[in-house]
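Side project, low priority. Logging it here so it doesn't get lost.
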Amino acid sequence: MYRDKLAKIILLTILFPFVIYMLGSCIMGYIPPTGSYRKAPYQFEELFNEKMAKYGMSIDIDSVNFSYGDGLSKTVPIECEDGSIISCTYYPTSERRKSLIEYMTFTQELTGQHGETTYIEQLLILMLDEFYTASTENRDEPFDEYSGVSYNEALRICKEFIRGEEKETKFFVWVRSDHGTATTLERTVGEPSTISISFLLPIK
């Protein structure tokens, strides 16, 4: 009898931490990530459709499947009322709903026609406002003048890149007071020609 009770106590002692861990994992799965720069794909979809509707743009992250070639990623077409061809590629930490976006690229195909609308600047504004909220506190001053740019300076760089012919440029924007990340603008010339903007996002 004593041995049976002892065995049950030992078994419960071993299983209890595991049960608590599993319960905690289930609960955490329903808690949205915190920090403006820490967003799950479904959160990004919601804010994109809300903020970019004024430009006639929307996105459905479930419209395509994951790719596994160069890391886990999804390349999702952005629906544009004016017919612009734009895609969003994002790299999450996992396929789970609570996964976090680590890297994101917006790419727009260019026709070269006069007066063509380029949405890269509007997409940069979306990311600054929703992911890099630290930069919105003072739009003329960066947190670190030696390694980062301000909100308004980022927009100036983007506008100049769109108007110019440079193939690539990078700048740093601070997602919080102690952490800046790289933003990359790229241009390709060919069939089709494209312009893209990429964001590395911290998740810790």
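Brief comment: The mean pLDDT is 83.
Revisit when time allows.
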